[in-house]
Amino acid sequence: MSVQWKGVMPAVTTKFTEKDQLDLEMFQVNINAQLEAGVEGIILGGTLGEASTLLDEEKRELVRETVRIVDGKVPVIMNVAEQTTRGAIEAANKAEKDGARGLMMLPPMRYNATNHETVVYFSEVAKNTSLPIMVYNNPIDYKIEVTLDMFDELLKFDNIQAVKESTRDISNVTRIKNRFGDRLKILSGVDTLALESILMGSDGWVAGLVDAFPAETVAIYKLAKAGRIDEALKIYRWFLPLLELDINAQLVQNIKLAEVATGIGTEYVRAPRLQLIGAERERVQNIITEGLKNRPQLPDYKSL
Fold first, then answer.
1. Could you tell me which of 2, 232, 224, 205 has the C-alpha nearest to residue 101?
2. Which residues of 154-168 are buried (b: 16+ CB within 10 A; e: fewer)?
3. Rounded-to-integer distance, Cα 76 and Cα 57, Å
4. How many CA atoms lie within 13 A of 202 on its CB side?
């Protein structure tokens, strides 16, 4: 199955049991909810997936299990976030062997690579995998920006096909379209800029709160692409306080708490992360409760 790099693609959370083991039963509940809502890909092993705390075998088990659950309905995409080029190539090869159909790739972790080093890093992985690659461009959180000039070099590789656009500069969508047309697909990577990004021409949305609210997320995307902007905007305005839970240092805990509220997740996180407590837990819970109380009735977006 080829990756089309469009539509809503959830960056799914990793479900754990109270004993800190993978909770594959609840994981399947959530993946099935995503499929039912109409997502067009599943992304594993990102920040929301707590990848930095996962053992290598756990990552591989998640890929294999997701491939089994989706059963060819949508592509499974594995995130690659490694400290070394060799490690990134090995991670890409393992993901491909386990059935992933695409990669999302961050620049080198921990080391603040130069532009040249970053280009070579992505290039070496591209040379050593047949999987299509989406570059995750998030200079706010990861301190390395993949500039348009750098993409000029990277697009020599046919399997570098998309960018998860998380610069927080909405005009960058237009810059990319002006420079590369459809050669570089754009997926919004910031929940609170998603509708704006889609209206500027983004092809898709790598979403976070979709983990708890899959139907609402896909409805916004489908309505916007169908030109039904007022309907999309009404849902988006309701959604925004919840979407803001994604642009927070405790985004994993926030979204898992929302998943519990909608019945498709558990709250367990892996240390050093801990479940929310005190005033911050109350604040987040109030946002979720208010959102559920005013949850909008959705139109028949699946037929669009």
1. 2
2. beeeeebbbbbbbbe
3. 17
4. 31
Nearest to 170 by CA among 154, 186, 158: 186
* pLDDT per residue of the chain (304 residues) written in tens, 0 to 9: 689 999 999 999 999 999 999 999 999 999 999 999 999 999 999 999 999 999 999 999 999 999 999 999 999 999 999 999 999 999 999 999 999 999 999 999 989 999 999 999 999 999 999 999 999 999 998 899 999 999 999 999 999 999 999 999 999 999 999 999 999 999 999 999 999 999 999 999 999 999 999 999 999 999 999 999 999 999 999 999 999 999 999 999 999 999 999 999 999 999 999 999 999 999 999 999 999 999 999 999 999 9
Which residue's entry shows tokens 């039912």?
Answer: 36
Q: Which residue has the tokens 């693609």?
A: 9
| Domain spans, the chain | 7-303
Distance, CA of 57 to CA of 63 (rounded, Å): 10
Positive/negative CA dihedral, 218, 80, 108, 174: negative
How far apart are the C-alpha atoms of 150 and 177, rounded to whole Å?
A: 15
Structure token digits, residue 60: 């591989």
User: Which CATH number is associated with domain 7-303?
Assistant: 3.20.20.70
Q: Phi and psi dihedrals of 89, rounded to 5?
A: -65, -45
Helices (H), the chain: 24-37, 56-70, 85-97, 115-127, 139-142, 148-154, 171-180, 194-199, 214-225, 229-243, 251-262, 278-293
Q: How far is CA 126 from CA 131, 173, 249, in A?
A: 8, 23, 31
Please name the amino acid found at residue 206.
V
**Chain mean position to CA 34:** 13
Beta carbons of 103 and 132 less than 8 angstroms apart: yes
CA distance 77 to 100: 6
